[in-house]
Design a protein that fits this description.
The chain is mostly beta strands. It has two helices and eleven strands, in the order H-E-E-E-E-E-E-E-E-E-E-E-H.
């Protein structure tokens, strides 16, 4: 019994020390996404995305992200993708991500594999993504444009569950973990985590809408006053999802 009490006291002490060694920055966010899939054949396709990410529920910029990729369907349940991403991140919140309080550009190359499965009516997907990132930085505070790029590696894993609710209406929840590795990662081996709870509805054969709650936890790659900085961003996300089957259209024309 004494050992049990000692364990709980130790756990409480560690939690208290950890809490004292961090700074929390809370923000309200609103994310709007457009995702377009272009199926060129039974196996090959293209993916185009734009993510319009805002703080204060849409009043100010958080980040703009453009991503393009090439898809290859290895099996009906396995999708491969390689591509390029461009992101512009703006200063927001009490403690901006950039230490000088400036916006910065990021270029990414990524490789992705996604496994889709179904248990009865429950759809399950696992997505693994590897990113090679070139993050813009400023060597002098007087500069208006970043003059250097820091190379970073990041691994992402997302699990998503989707279930029909009523007729075409469905509900989905997902969680995605971001882990940094290799050189130059600074403080954040843990980079961020995203959790979403969504409702979706297909409006047409090629177009559906999803929307709901989004929670984003971000750890900055630097310390402030010898403390780790964590952003806790809460708000909503709305996604427009398009899927155009160009291959089937060509077959029908023949």
């Amino acid at each position: 019994m004494k050992t049990k009490y000692f364990f709980f006291l130790l756990l409480f002490a560690v939690s208290a020390v950890t809490a004292q060694n961090r700074i929390t920055d809370k923000n309200n966010i609103g994310w709007y996404n457009a995702n377009i899939s272009w199926n060129l054949s039974e196996r090959w396709g293209l993916q185009t995305e734009y993510h319009w990410r805002r703080v204060d529920y849409g009043e100010n910029w958080q980040q703009g992200l453009l991503r393009v990729g090439v898809n290859y369907k290895l099996t009906p349940e396995t999708l491969l993708r390689v591509g390029y991403g461009w992101a512009e991140t703006y200063p927001y919140g009490d403690i901006p991500i950039n230490g000088m309080g400036k916006d910065f550009t990021e270029h990414r190359i990524f490789e992705m594999v996604q496994f889709n499965n179904k248990i009865s009516q429950l759809g399950i997907s696992h997505r693994f993504m590897l990113e090679q990132r070139w993050v813009g930085r400023y060597t002098k505070a007087s500069l208006d444009k970043e003059d250097d790029y820091l190379y970073l590696n990041r691994l992402r894993y997302m699990v998503r569950f989707q279930l029909p609710v009523y007729k075409k209406l469905y509900a989905a929840v997902y969680d995605e973990l971001f882990i940094g590795f290799g050189g130059n990662i600074g403080e954040n081996i843990f980079d961020q985590n995203r959790f979403g709870a969504l409702i979706g509805y297909p409006l047409t054969k090629n177009f559906k809408l999803e929307g709901g709650y989004l929670n984003q936890t971000v750890q900055l790659g630097r310390e402030v006053n010898n403390k780790n900085v964590f952003q806790h961003n809460n708000g909503f996300i709305v996604s427009a999802l398009f899927n155009f089957d160009l291959y089937q259209q060509d077959v029908q024309k023949q």
